[in-house]
DNA sequence: CTCCGATTGAGAGTCAGTCTCAATCTACCG
DNA sequence: CGGTAGATTGAGACTGACTCTCAATCGGAG
């Protein structure tokens, strides 16, 4: 109805999509820009930011708000889910919580809030990182 | 037991604490700096940032990571809880979710992650904002 | 009152991310 | 095919939030 009409598959966009597909953990825009550089693909930083933002808006990637105000992106499955991230190595696991979803709705109803969304992430240390 | 020894209750710190106590919703460092200015209290911006950060570390205030990378602070009750925030007016309600807490622990256990913490916030439109 | 480390603040610096706009690319058309 | 409108790109300027630096000041233990 409004946007999908215009989305050209350019070399840059393809490169970014590929870089995203090749990593399983969250990466910042700068990380992606660097790895593209490393791979020989010349893509402007602004383009990386723009593309990532667009993909996030389109729901093609998930965004993780880093504590330092920087965002990290990750190619994720399309259904609603959350993440369990290792604070040490960044390893990420997708998790779902039906109980959480219904709790959120109940809380919203109780307080008479509408159009409720939520952000939820779990952080810890994975088994591998723990043992040395 | 270890550090608390050095925390002088200066005019600036008192002013910031008071400003925080006077507001019930999340406020950015800049917001607080402005309101202090308005109130005639001259406090440097750097001091506001430093103090807020310290209070957050000490668990005296909760921090809400704004989507734009800015942090907002709020004087909160000390026990573990989450927030339901109005996207329109900022009205904030503290909420607790026993179900969520136990779900988080279970998920962590299932994936063998340790020292798990979580961030969870709910956003919506409050009743007042909805009706005009 | 004295002294010393804690605190402050003006201003420079950092850094992620955004904007500007001319050059470039693409899809589509005749 | 060449032509064209509109999408896309990228170098570099810019923004805005936040941190650092360091000399001047403060506060309270003795
Ligand atoms: Zn790990
Ligand atoms: Zn959810
Ligand atoms: Zn509201
Ligand atoms: Zn919780």
From TrEMBL, chains A, B:
Which PANTHER family does this entry report, sorted A to Z? FERRIC UPTAKE REGULATION PROTEIN (PTHR33202:SF2), ZINC UPTAKE REGULATION PROTEIN (PTHR33202)
MF GO annotations: DNA-binding transcription factor activity; transcription cis-regulatory region binding; zinc ion binding
Question: According to the entry, what is the taxonomic lineage of the organism?
Answer: Bacteria, Bacillati, Actinomycetota, Actinomycetes, Propionibacteriales
Gene3D superfamilies the UniProt entry points to: 3.30.1490.190, Winged helix-like DNA-binding domain superfamily/Winged helix DNA-binding domain
Listed cofactors: Zn(2+); Mn(2+); Fe(2+)
Protein name as annotated: Transcriptional repressor
What family does the Swiss-Prot or TrEMBL record give for this protein?
Belongs to the Fur family.
InterPro entries assigned: FUR (IPR002481), Fur_C (IPR043135), WH-like_DNA-bd_sf (IPR036388), WH_DNA-bd_sf (IPR036390)
Q: Might you name a Gene Ontology BP term for this protein?
A: regulation of secondary metabolite biosynthetic process
Q: Where in the cell is it found?
A: Cytoplasm
Source species:
Nocardioides immobilis
Pfam families attached to this UniProt entry = FUR (PF01475)
* UniProt entry tagged with the keyword Chaperone: no
Assembly notes:
Homodimer.
Sorted alphabetically, which keywords does the UniProt record give?
Cytoplasm, DNA-binding, Iron, Metal-binding, Repressor, Transcription, Transcription regulation, Zinc
Q: How is the cofactor bound?
A: Binds 1 zinc ion per subunit.
> Which amino acid positions bind Zn(2+), per UniProt?
86, 89, 126, 129
Residue positions binding Fe cation: 80, 101, 118
One CC-aspect GO term: cytosol
């Amino acid at each position: 109805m409004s946007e999908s009409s215009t989305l050209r598959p350019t070399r840059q966009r393809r490169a970014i999509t590929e870089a995203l597909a090749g990593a399983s953990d969250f990466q910042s825009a700068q990380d992606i820009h660097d790895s593209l550089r490393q791979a020989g693909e010349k893509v402007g930083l602004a383009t990386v930011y723009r593309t990532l933002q667009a993909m996030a808006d389109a729901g093609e990637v998930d965004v993780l708000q880093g504590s330092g105000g920087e965002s990290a992106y990750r190619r994720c499955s399309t259904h609603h889910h959350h993440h369990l991230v290792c604070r040490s190595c960044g390893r990420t696991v997708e998790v779902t919580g039906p109980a959480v979803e219904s709790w959120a709705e109940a809380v919203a109803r109780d307080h008479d809030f509408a159009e409720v969304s939520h952000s939820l992430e779990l952080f810890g240390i994975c088994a591998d990182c723990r043992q040395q």
